[in-house]
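Field guide to reading this record: the first block holds the primary sequence, the second block holds the structure written as discrete tokens, and the final block holds curator observations. Each block starts with its own label. This record concerns Threonine synthase, catalogued under organism Duganella aceris.

BLOCK 1 — SEQUENCE
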Amino acid sequence: MQYVSTRAAASAAASSSQQFSDILLGGLAADGGLFLPADYPQVTGAELDAWRQLSYADLAFEILKKFATDIPEADLRALTAKTYTKEVYKNVRAGEKASQITPLRVLEEEGGKKLVLQALSNGPTLAFKDMAMQLLGNLFEYALAKQSAQLNIFGATSGDTGSAAEYAMRGKKGIRVFMLSPHKKMSAFQTAQMFSLQDPNIFNIAIEGVFDDAQDMVKAVSNDLEFKAKQKIGTVNSINWARVVAQVVYYFRGYLAATTSNEQKVSFTVPSGNFGNICAGHIARMMGLPISKLVAATNENDVLDEFFRTGVYRVRKSAETYHTSSPSMDISKASNFERFIYDLVGRDSERTRALFHKVETQGGFDLSGKPGSDGDEFKLVAKYGFKSGKSTHEDRLNTIRDVADDYGIVIDTHTADGIKVAKENLENGVTMIVLETALAAKFNETILDALGEDAERPEGFENIEDLPQKFVVMKPDVEVMKAYIAANTGL
Ligand SMILES: *Cc1c(COP(=O)(O)O)cnc(C)c1O
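BLOCK 2 — STRUCTURE
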């Protein structure tokens, strides 16, 4: 399986194509594009039938081996078996089986309409990012051991990504994590989750400032290419291709668990921010999974909803990006969106490059086909099954209340955005699966507002705020940051 950049000139594409292992540890392609397979591997009906019996780990192996053809199959099987265990994904609700890894729960079935919740947040940090990040930790350790190399992961987080990365990389040989977060700006739960890690390879750095200050530090350090190379700096952000592939697996799993025959179709509603999760759904559909609709649910930061309604992609400025009660979807631009646009414009890398150049210089593009627009490909969006919707703080509170009353479970704020939008997109005869992207305990402040009581905490999380914390506080000073990294890597 060869990978190409969404921006590679056609002449360069053939010669510059790379294998899975080549792009595993990297981020953007050298030309600024994102990596995608040269062709999407196809799944046959016979394969789908056979996969109905498989455990999650075995299913993950079958799908991954189509993308990671350069990793020996026995190694890949060992990696997926080690990753997807009931011990790692143990934070299930009463009545659900941890061995299913992503258990499904029917919320409503009326007439031909059916609404189902797929739990993706039973991993160590109680958010769906564990689904991919846990595999990434094992893949990184495997790849680094082969090259006797080391990697220093450097990033900034406002909550979910940083903790998922730390729990995936803790104790891994050859890997250190330097994670910046805005000092005293995360929830008490999120702070405790990250800072209570005592592993010597995890470095929590609380920056005196807001998230953007932390993010600016990451950019400044990463722009120093010499330092970056010497210190073996890498990232695990949402454009990482292996993360996207790992997410493809649960779309297959959700489909297989919700259907009895390959004649049936399902739809998915996905609480969306950077378009990483739903991009994996798009890839599953391109591989032949019988998906009817892929519905992107956004919060007040509705960049994606605007595109899927109008064909206009308009990134937001920092001042226009709202801090909401579903904070992991508070994005100003969707960093994986280029992968879908590349397919939408017929895999034309010249056009993709021009469109995203326009995003960088003019803040967006317009594919509505109206006079003066940049193209008319918006008319093709329906062919790819995409729909969208938006949910506000008020909707979120109401949905959390309704779901508690009607179905007897407490959902988190991001999942609430998903349920709200899913209900607007139910179709007769097509099961709608909503992806549960976090557990309520992570966003207790809003649960308390909605229900007047605390969200239940999974076992073992009862007193995490009381655990000893390990972190350093730093002013946003790039030189101090670099010295701190160098001192701790010894490189
Ligand atoms: C990251 C995250 C999202 C958004 O996922 P994308 O892949 O960025 O679209 C939604 N909900 C939760 C809880 C998250 O942590």
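BLOCK 3 — OBSERVATIONS
Residues 129-146 form the longest helix (18 residues).
The domain at 102-126+242-451 is CATH 3.40.50.1100 (Rossmann fold).
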